[in-house]
Every structure is written in C-alpha cells, then in structure tokens.
Amino acid sequence: MIKSLSVSSESSLPPLEDDLDSVCSDELLGSHSRRWLSELMTGDLPPETGEVNTMGRDGLFVDYHFPLGELEMQSGVIWKRPRELCSSPQFIVNGATRLDVRQGGLNDCWLLSAIASLCVHRSLLKKVVSLDQSFQDGYNGCFTFRFWQYGQWEEVRIDDLLPTKNNKLIYLSSPDRNEFWSSLLEKAYAKLKGGYRALDMGFPHEAMVDMTGGVTEVVPIASLPADLPTFLRHLLARGALINCANCEGLLEQKNELGIMFRHAYSLTAVEKVETAHGEVYLVRILNPWGNTEWEGPWSDLKGPEWNTVSMKEQQRLERVRREDGEFWMSVADFRQYFATMEVCHLPDALSEPGSKVRPWSCIMYHGDWVPRVTAGGSPMGDRFYQNPQFYFDLSEVDSNQDDSKKTCSFVLALMQKHQRRRGINLSIALHIYPAQRKNTYLSPEDLSRLHPVLYTPIYSSRREVVLRSSLPPGHYIIIASTSEPDQQGSFLLRVLTEKGNDAIPAQKPPPPQDVSSASELSFPHQAALPSPKSTKQLFKKHCNKKGYCKPLHLYNLLTEALQGGVLAGSEKFLALEHCKSLVVLMDSQGIAQLSWPEFQGLWDKIRKWTDIFLVFDKNKTLHLEYPEVAPALKAAGIMVDDLVMQLVGLRYTEPDMTISYPGFLYLLMKLDSMIQKFQAYDMVGMGTVTVSYRQWLHMTMYN
Asked: Is 651 within 8 Å of 660 (Cβ atoms)?
C-alpha cells in the first residue's frame, strides 16, 4: 500500500538568509518539479487548509507538518514533551522577561536578541505569545504563536515536543527548568522559517520585523550623532527595539573585555547616572546567552566605578551583581566596542495603551511592479515615471523639536514580497521628489527637470530597504522602483510619520483627449473592472446572507463586472467551472466559499492579472494568441518550460489555440497555487517534497 509520495527537484537550492518563507525557484525547477506541475495541471491545487489535528496515542496533539532536518536527526536526539523533562512544567514563570532567554546549540543569537527586546514591551509580546496558554487547564499538547508576515499576523501552531539530549533541551531554554514559553516560541519560529536549520545564522533586524511588524534599519554606530545619549533616548522614547553587534574577529569569540564578535546583543536602556564625581551616561546591554558579560568599566563584577554610585541610585537602575547576561557600560565604551545597530521602529498600532512611548503613525500600501505597466526601472531610463508613485504630504512638524527647526521626521520602508519563493532578488530603491499640492503625479516632463530631495544610496537586493530622514513641511512624491525595467514583483510600502502627515497612492491624470485605449491608463484594469467601491457593492449584492461568496455567486458577480468595460463580451467565455476553481484555490478553510477578506485577496490577483492580459492582448481580440501566453506568464512571475506550455495548449486553449480572458485567470490561478503548494511543503528549501497518500488525494481532488 502506498504510504507516501516524494516529489523532488533535481537541483537543490542553497538555503537563503532572508525570510526563507519558501525557496523553490521557478526558473530552476528540475524535471521532477516539472512533473509535479505536469501531473497536477489537469486538476486544481488548493491553498493551505490549516493543520490537521492529529492526536498521538496519548491523546496529545502531534504536529506532523513540522520540518525535521539533519540537526534533529543526529544520534542521541530524543523529542520529549515538557512534562517528560520536569514534574511540573509551566508555560511562564513569574512573567515572561528578557532573562528567560538562554541560547542553545544553534547560532541563533540574532533571533534571541529579538525575543529579548520583545520582552521589554508587554503589548508586543502579547501579539506574538498568547500568555494564557498552559500545561494545566485545557492542555492538549498544542501551542500557538503569531508572527507578522508582509502586513498581516499569521498564526503558527506547534506541538510541545522538543529535541533533547541526555534529558536536556538542545536549543533555547529558560534558566528556570520548569519554564518553556521561550523554547516553544523558538520552535514556532523555526516552523515558520522551514525548520531549526533555518535559524542557524541570520539577521536580528529581520527577526524583529517578524516579531513586531515594525520597520528595521541597520545603522553604523560610527555614523551616529555626537550626542549619542539623546539620539538613543529619542529612539527608545519612540518605542524602538535596538540590537547591536561587534563585527570584527571570529564568530562568537570574545575580546579581552568579554564582548563577543559577530554576536547579537540587545540595548534596552540609556540612563544618566549620578556618581560621586558627576553625571555619567550608561547603556544597558543584554547578551542572549545569559552569561559572558562585559568585563570593562561599569561591569557587574569587576567595575569599581559602582562604588561611586549610591545604593539608591543602583536600585533605581536595577543593578544586579551576577553574570546573568545583562550589564551596563558607558556610552563612550559602547561606541568603541560595538560597530552596528539594528533599530526596529514601531508603528502606533503596536503601542501599549497608557504608555509614555510616542510611537510613529503608520500608513501601509501593497503594490506591484507589472512589466510594461508599472515597472519602469531606475531614473537612468526614460520610463521611471511608470513606477508606483505616492503623494507624500508633510504638514505636522516633530512634536519634540524647538521652533527653529520645524522639520518632519519620517521612516520609509520598501519590502519586496515573496521574492525568495521564486529565487529572485530584485534590487529595489526609494526616491523622494518635490511636488505641488495640485500635482500629485509626476510626468516624464516633471521628472526631466526635477531632482530627488532624498533617495536610498543604492539599489539593494535585501528584503527591505529603509530611508529614515526629515524634510521641511511640504508636498512630495515617493517613487518605488526596481533597478531594471519590466521586472515583476510585489511590494509593501510603509510610511512612518508624526500623526497628521499622510501618504496616498498618486493618481495619473487622465489624458487631455478622450482616449479609449487601456494602454493609456496607469493601470489598464481601471478600464476593464469596477472601481473598489463598486466591487464591494457587487460583493454585497451577490454573496449569500452570511456574507460568503460561493462559485455561483462569483459567476454572477464576474458576469456583471465585465459588462460595460473594455473586456465586455469576454463574460460569455466564463464558465462555472472557472469560478469553482477560483473559489477553492483562494478558500483558506476548505468550505468552498470566500469571506470578504478572502475575496479581496482574489480580486487583487484578478486586477494584477487583468493588467497583464490587456498589455499582451495586442490585437484587442479579448484572447491571447498562443505565442503571447508564455511572455504573459513570465510577466506574472511564472517561468514555464516547453512541456508545461504544451500542456497549456492542450488543456486551457480554445479550439483556435487562443486563451480567453476568463481562461487566462483560470490558468494563472492554478499555476500560482500549484507552485505555492509545492513551496509550502518544501519548507527546508531542498527542492523536494514528501506528501502522504492522503495529502496527495486532498491536493488533487479538491478542485
């Protein structure tokens, strides 16, 4: 009897250091992966429908989807539940604090420093960790955590089986042997990233983004202002989380004063300390190892400087005379012995009610670079104006400035979405140009005579580029671009400002004469599909009484939506079977109907794919000729070989070898979903997936 089915790619891809949310490259799919596509091209592949509540023999939840790697397959490794390690396990003991984090056998101090910073802000901690979980009331072996991914919080569910050797945890642990929240959090994050192996080396700023939803920038300490205490206090007053590191020397070897090389620390406080000789500024640092501290001036055990500080002042600073990983050092020594800081700026939605912290106000936009439509490349080319533009209105000056400055601080963050999935790293950048109140969109003529007032210094292939600065009150245009034109990708733009300032998508003005060609619009779908407001009205009109859209509802909705636009007439090629597939492939619960948020996700795809269809339908027949299909798929970010294109011709074309507009949506949805499903199971990024017989039937039968 068949127990499992393994589908693999001939060319294994190396692990990627970014978000590792999935690392199968469409361009590098080997023959086995192409066979996966080929075998499923005649059926529909559903999205993730949630975990299967599988119970072990003891009646406790077992997460069979957790990706195991070679680290956990070593000799002597035994997976045990906390109740097998101690008589009375507790999820949290005396509150979750920064001192509950002790590094284990992984080089994941980058993650642990982010967790330690998280503990300083209870409201942030509660976003990630449900603090009411326990090993007593309602315990079934299952624990849940939440992580921020591309603008939304995603729940990750795990069992509490942890890898051990000699009855001790291998990885992260708490100094209190009965406490397990930090160990389970590490396991949940490992699942999100593809296994414990994926946590071995990384960037603290990316972990902090995933843990907080904040905007993180990397800052060389040598470039910081001379008045470093004021600068650091300003960041902490905004609720920023700060990590720091010394980038010299061998990995995690220490210098003569105890500072580890290439090791992530957390900076958690800046204080002005009264001494017998005057005032001194100190910073508080935490080593996530829970030991190995600074041994220079102001150290916990070897710092005679503390003798000049009163006991009352030491109590105010909560100074502890033991090696627990937390220590104080002077600002001057901090500047000398640390090289980089990673600062996570927090938006207002993450602030704690009643807190003295003054967080940023955050505006967030999702967008796309669509080849030949909104992917104009760098300012060096003549199509830079085609890139997404955002009108940036700065009217509220910083609340903590004197009247002489009158500038508006802000942080811009441009994050490319899911590029690791395709093995593509776009080089991205931000530019800010001056604008007039009535001129909310920059034309080619405008850009030919204007110079940017600010811009990111280089095009970067990192997941996110950040621009932190300030400008006088006024009107500006933000342009998000890729280094080369016609590169396909999705992005998230976040704008952090003082409350009262604003950023909105810039609208290209209509041409002076009546032009019916969709190519004259900044987004061709605007001439083909209803406006966002009308779309919501259509959804309300056609959904059922419970607010869900079933396949027949979607069929009626699309039929009405296509009438009257440039795609009028294409609705006669729409079939109920198309709508069934569109619904089940977007349905996250396996109930064959879409809620309004799920429908919005589908509609976003339809708008983007409509742009591509209208651009490649060169003869405006409402059909794509067969040679036009592969370039259109490439514009959508999907690379296919000749075998898959032959299947497309056999399965998805009309008798005249063309693809209708509804058929194009149907084809893209199936390809996009099949690739995402493969990547979801290929969590460790080896280009190979193993699915059980039951999982295979679920994937191929639900259509």
From this structure: no
Look-up: residue for tokens 């940023």? 360
pTM: 0.62
Structure tokens at 439: 């001129």
Tell me the pLDDT tens digit for each residue of 523-578: 677 778 888 888 888 998 988 888 889 989 999 999 988 887 888 888 888 888 88
Which amino acid, residue 239?
Answer: G
Residue 42: what are its φ and ψ, rounded to 5°?
-95, 0
Q: What are phi and psi of 345, to 5 degrees?
A: -85, 130
User: Phi, psi at residue 684, to the nearest 5°?
Assistant: -90, -5
pLDDT at 362 over 70: yes
Whether 122 and 352 have beta carbons less than 8 Å apart is answered as yes
CB-neighbour burial class of residue 560 (10 A; exposed 0-12, middle 13-18, buried 19+): middle
- Cα separation, 592 vs 196, in Å, equals 34
Structure tokens that stand for 415 in this block? 């994050």
Q: Is 205 a catalytic residue?
A: no
CA distances from 247 to 263, 294, 343 (A): 8, 16, 16
User: CB of 484 within 8 A of CB of 378?
Assistant: yes
Q: Which amino acid, 383?
A: R
Q: C-alpha angle with apex 197: 187 to 419, nearest 5 degrees?
A: 95
* Residues 432 and 455: beta-carbon distance below 8 Å: yes
Using an 8 Å Cβ cutoff, are 106 and 198 in contact?
A: no
Nearest alpha-carbon partner for 395 in 496, 501, 498, 470: 501
Q: Out of 121, 142, 205, 263, which one is annotated catalytic?
A: 263
Place of tokens 């209105």: 393
Does 287 participate in catalysis according to the annotation? yes
Tokens of 483: 């280094």
Nearest to 367 by CA among 97, 34, 608, 627: 608
21 pLDDT above the threshold of 70: no
Q: Which residues contact 627 (CB under 8 A, 6 or more apart)?
A: none
Residue type, 603: W
DSSP string, 533-578: HHHHHHHHHHS-TTS-B-HHHHHHHHHHHHTTSTTTTGGGG--HHH
Q: Which of 109, 119, 408, 579 is catalytic?
A: 109
Residues pairing with 341 in the sheet: 219, 244
Strand order in the sheet with 340-345: 215-220, 340-345, 241-245, 265-275, 278-286, 326-330
Alpha carbon separation from 1 to 7, 428, 517, 623, 699 (Å, rounded): 18, 51, 59, 46, 19
**Residue 408 among the catalytic residues:** no
Q: What is the mean pLDDT of residues 91-116?
A: 81
Q: pLDDT tens digits for 607-639?
A: 888 888 988 888 888 899 888 888 888 888 787
Q: What is the C-alpha to C-alpha distance for residues 540 and 548, in angstroms, rounded to an integer?
A: 9
pLDDT at 350: 56
Q: Which of 84, 240, 279, 223 is nearest to 162 (CA)?
A: 84
Q: CA-based Rg of the chain, rounded to a whole angstrom?
A: 27
Taken in order 546, 549, 553, 558, the sign of the CA dihedral is positive
474 conformational bin, left if phi > 0, alpha if psi -120 to 50, beta if neither: left
Give how far Cα 381 sits from Cα of 78, 389, 519, 520, Å: 58, 16, 20, 19
Determine which one of 246, 287, 387, 501 is catalytic: 287
